[in-house]
Amino acid sequence: MRAPMRALSVIVPIFNEEPDLWLMAAELSVHLDSIVGQGQWQFVLVDNGSVDASPQIIGRIVETWPTSIRIRLAEPNFGEALVQGLVAADGDWAYIINVDFWDEVMLGWCWRHRGLYDLVLGSKRADPMLNRQHQYRRLLSWGLNSILQFAFGFVGTDTHGQKFLSLSTMRPMIEQCRMRRGQFDTELTLRAIRQGYWIAEVPVPCVEIRPPRNLMFKKISRNLVDILRLKRMVREFPIDRPIRYHRWAREDLESEDSVQARFLLSRAERARQGAAATAA
Fold it and tell me: For the chain, what are the domain ranges?
């Protein structure tokens, strides 16, 4: 028998996260109880081929928060971990994080304004004052985003990282995506933009608490191969409608008294209602 629907599913891909996994769950659960409500959310923990004590910690998390779901992949594949987590999620909404990258401010803002956007991207590049990545990771992110802007006309600053999305709206698109590894995020984002979904980009802080795991040349070569494949694939979903993409400042997330934020939210909602009325 399938478990009852939750309001929010938190998708967490996990690969050798023993030092930080329990701390993430304990800290984030407090914010989830406060923002979403006790019993109204779940962790979807996808063990991405870990070889440390992460599986045991996942078991402890599931025992502590019984609404949680655990999934085990035989070998590391970040994109596949996200897909499997999203497919298994019971929530109306999903919040995708990494164990060391999540933001309660973004979560609170997205939850208060859920229904306004189909997909919210948490960008580590949107506000340089918030980005504390290692220099080589900044360079890698800049290079990838520059390629996406040139090759696909991407209007944002980041396709990787935290995301908040409507599962009821986005699930068919998730099932259409064919990219895995590191470019599932990119394909999902490009599909949503090109098909006229309502997208928002919000700045999030990025403070790395561990050294990079992959050598730059290895990651670059993989990304280039995947981007070439994605370039051929996007012919199936060309841009044929206006782009609905809003970018927000960090202060808009932190201050509910922002006049500009209220104005933009009102304008976006009126536009959404107009589009719905036209479609009807």
Answer: 6-279
